[in-house]
Specification:
This protein has 279 residues and is an alpha/beta fold. It folds into 2 domains: 166 residues, NAD(P)-binding Rossmann-like Domain (Rossmann fold, 3-Layer(aba) Sandwich), CATH 3.40.50.720; 84 residues, ProC C-terminal domain-like (ProC C-terminal domain-like fold, Orthogonal Bundle), CATH 1.10.3730. Helix content is 56%, strand content 13%. It contains 12 helices and 8 strands. The chain is globular, with a radius of gyration of 21 Å. It starts with 6 loop residues before the first strand and ends with a helix. The mean pLDDT is 96. Bound molecules: NADP nicotinamide-adenine-dinucleotide phosphate. The site of NADP nicotinamide-adenine-dinucleotide phosphate (NAP) has 27 residues, from α1 and α4.
Length: 279
């Protein structure tokens, strides 16, 4: 059970803090069982004040104190932090990386020992506990390791278990997805302003519309096409707007965007494998 496990979090930035917040507020864990480290003492101080978690002197002490270690630092410093903590990593621990674009093969080549590795691709909505995360097991991860990892990421949203070869597609879709939606909301707000609304009202109405549409999809579990049919009346406004979106190629553009982001993730991953093995 997750509540009994000692969890370590290296890096308490956006994602590290989101995870601490989710774990503590969902009561999936207790603050005394969460140990953190960061290069920034000011951040650690405020994290301790807000959540009551344990602060370690350094990254190595986080690993020593924990049964599950989450590496929540930037991909560029992942290799050096793995090396720094390598001596205390062994098969008794679950090791989770959320570093975007860092394949398990890169981590394996850097550490060069059999470990229970798990790779996770979360997204920024984890910070409001509505994240979408994909979890991929490494070759030595156990079934229970996946269950515990899923419990961690379910405390900040929802998660799915996938094979690692789909991680680039996940990065292109839900990892990068919030950026696409922000652009869409911003564009809808511009449209509202063009049609005479105040910026404030336009932005509020477009954001709330995206939130409401997503909630409707999740709660009814209806196919989006079916919901679209429900809100388009003959000769009405919605079908007229949809026709314009289709003429502008919105659907194709979104497919192209996810495809391009997936390919970019693949390229970055290949570069990471080269960099990590040369480290
Ligand atoms: N944010 C997202 O939406 C998102 C989505 C998917 C995946 N991810 C992945 O999640 C990971 C964390 O991202 P993030 O957005 O949370 O990054 P972040 O906000 O920069 O957090 C990383 C934290 O680690 C600290 N740090 C730097 N060097 C360190 C060291 N040597 N030892 C310990 N801590 C150190 C950073 O301090 P400084 O600020 O001083 O460098 C920062 O506080 C990344 O690998 C990213 O790819 C993020």
């Amino acid at each position: 059970m997750l509540k009994d496990k000692r969890i370590g979090i290296i890096g308490t930035g956006n994602m590290g803090e989101a995870l601490i917040n989710g774990l503590v507020h969902s009561r999936s864990s207790i603050p005394e069982n969460i140990t953190c480290s960061d290069i920034r003492n000011d951040r650690l101080k405020s994290i301790k004040e807000v959540y009551g978690v344990v602060i370690a002197k350094n990254n190595l002490d986080v690993v020593k104190a924990s049964e599950i270690v989450i590496y929540a630092i930037k991909p560029q410093i992942m290799a050096s932090i793995l090396k720094e903590t390598a001596d205390c990593l062994d098969k008794s621990k679950i090791i989770i990386s959320i570093a975007a674009g860092v394949p398990l093969a890169a981590i394996e080549s850097c550490l060069n020992k059999d470990l229970r590795l798990i790779r996770v691709m979360p997204n920024i909505a984890a910070s409001v506990r509505e994240g979408a995360a994909a979890i991929a097991p490494g070759k030595h991860a156990l079934k229970d390791d996946l269950k515990l990892t899923q419990a961690i990421f379910d405390s900040v949203g929802e998660s799915v278990i996938i094979e690692e070869n789909l991680m680039d597609a996940i990065t292109g879709l839900s990892g990068s997805g919030p950026a696409y939606i922000f652009l869409i909301v911003d564009a809808l707000a511009d449209a509202g302003v063009k049609m005479g609304l105040s910026r404030e009202d336009a932005l509020f109405l477009s954001s709330q519309t995206v939130l409401g549409a997503a909630k409707l999809l999740m709660e009814t579990k209806e196919h989006p096409g079916k919901l679209k049919d429900k809100v388009t009346s003959p000769g009405g406004t919605a079908i007229t707007g949809l026709h314009t979106l289709e003429k502008g190629g919105l659907r194709t553009t979104l497919i192209n965007a996810v495809e391009a982001a997936t390919n970019r993730s693949k390229e970055l991953g290949e570069m990471m494998i080269k960099n990590f093995s040369g480290n």
